[in-house]
UniProtKB/TrEMBL annotation:
<keyword id="KW-0694">RNA-binding</keyword>
<keyword id="KW-0690">Ribosome biogenesis</keyword>
<dbReference type="InterPro" id="IPR005304">
    <property type="entry name" value="Rbsml_bgen_MeTrfase_EMG1/NEP1"/>
</dbReference>
<keyword id="KW-0699">rRNA-binding</keyword>
<feature type="compositionally biased region" description="Acidic residues">
    <location>
        <begin position="21"/>
        <end position="38"/>
    </location>
</feature>
<dbReference type="Pfam" id="PF03587">
    <property type="entry name" value="EMG1"/>
</dbReference>
<dbReference type="GO" id="GO:0070037">
    <property type="term" value="F:rRNA (pseudouridine) methyltransferase activity"/>
</dbReference>
<dbReference type="GO" id="GO:0070475">
    <property type="term" value="P:rRNA base methylation"/>
</dbReference>
<dbReference type="GO" id="GO:0032040">
    <property type="term" value="C:small-subunit processome"/>
</dbReference>
<feature type="region of interest" description="Disordered">
    <location>
        <begin position="1"/>
        <end position="58"/>
    </location>
</feature>
<keyword id="KW-0949">S-adenosyl-L-methionine</keyword>
<keyword id="KW-0698">rRNA processing</keyword>
<keyword id="KW-0489">Methyltransferase</keyword>
<protein>
    <submittedName>
        <fullName>Putative nucleolar essential protein-related protein</fullName>
        <ecNumber>2.1.1.257</ecNumber>
    </submittedName>
</protein>
<dbReference type="GO" id="GO:0005634">
    <property type="term" value="C:nucleus"/>
</dbReference>
<dbReference type="GO" id="GO:0019843">
    <property type="term" value="F:rRNA binding"/>
</dbReference>
<dbReference type="InterPro" id="IPR029026">
    <property type="entry name" value="tRNA_m1G_MTases_N"/>
</dbReference>
Length: 288
């Protein structure tokens, strides 16, 4: 006897969960984790051509560690004061343009963005690229003072970047790396199992050191300070967390920021703002 149609069970709705690299999340089931990650990869890779994947893999070869001299590695010790950078509202968004997935930017995808009722001026991944390069290239990082670097996108995706990673110098290669990262959720070092970049679970506050001082930057802040004088007044044992906006326009709004300051009477780019911060800290710690 055939079962009546009305008796047929309803399909279960899958709960939409945040997608991130779950390797270190001990509370998640290992089998469920692998299935979800494979599903995400299949969904994203469905329109990616072999040439796109080859370009991304080629760009990944540039991820070589930045050497740190042996006598300066004490900066990575937990008991040594360190610095954390958080880039907020970064424009790092992947979309299917034509037959392949690409990292959206205002220069190459202006027509695509306009057709989808989006403002091309807001899609500036080059700002994040310049900011990341300024942080990782700084003598402050090479001296081992940078504890961590986090990037949070406009869509709320949180990315962790290891301080010793070498980000590609050209934007095209950087875009390939970000495309690969947002597809695979992590990128490992060549020939090693260490993950140099990975998508992690929100919020960023759970990764920040306890009792750290969280400082945000905005030109609209009424508290105008000289950066050298500001860091000079901070206790040498304190861990500083600097939150900088990586967008073209607007203001960062994060409830975990304790102090909003302005370091110039003129609007500054994210890259130059970071340069002022690192220069002030390098002078304070005697890093030449």
């Amino acid at each position: 006897m055939v079962r009546p149609y009305a008796v047929k069970g309803h399909k279960r709705k899958k709960n939409k969960k945040e997608i991130y690299d779950k390797e270190e999340d001990e509370q998640e089931n290992v089998e469920q984790e692998s299935e979800e990650e494979e599903g995400v990869q299949k969904k994203l890779k469905s329109g990616v051509t072999e040439s796109d994947e080859e370009k991304a893999e080629e760009a990944a070869q540039e991820l070589v560690g930045i050497p740190v001299s042996l006598n300066e590695k004490q900066g990575n010790d937990k008991n040594t004061p360190s610095v954390v950078f958080v880039l907020e509202k970064a424009s790092l968004e992947v979309a299917k343009v034509g037959k392949s997935y690409q990292l959206l930017n205002s220069e190459d995808h202006a027509n695509f963005l306009k057709k989808n009722n989006r403002n091309p001026a807001e899609y500036r991944p080059d700002i994040s690229h310049q900011a990341i390069l300024n942080i990782l290239d700084s003598p402050l990082n090479k001296a081992g003072k940078l504890k961590a670097l986090y990037v949070r996108t406009e869509k709320g995706v949180l990315i962790e970047i290891k301080p010793h990673v070498r980000i590609p110098r050209t934007f095209k290669r950087f875009a390939g790396i970000m495309l690969q990262l947002l597809q695979k959720l992590s990128i490992s070092a060549v020939g090693k199992r260490e993950k140099l970049l990975r998508v992690i679970k929100n919020p960023v506050t759970q990764y920040l050191p306890v009792n750290s001082r969280k400082i945000g930057f905005s030109h609209s802040s009424e508290k105008l300070v000289d950066m050298h004088d500001y860091v000079a007044t901070v206790d040498n044992d304190a861990t500083l967390v600097f939150v900088v906006g990586a967008m073209a326009h607007g203001k960062i709004e994060c409830d975990y920021i304790e102090d909003f300051i302005s370091i110039s009477g003129y609007p500054l780019s994210a890259a130059y703002c970071i340069t002022r911060i690192t220069n002030a800290l390098e002078r304070k710690h005697g890093i030449v």
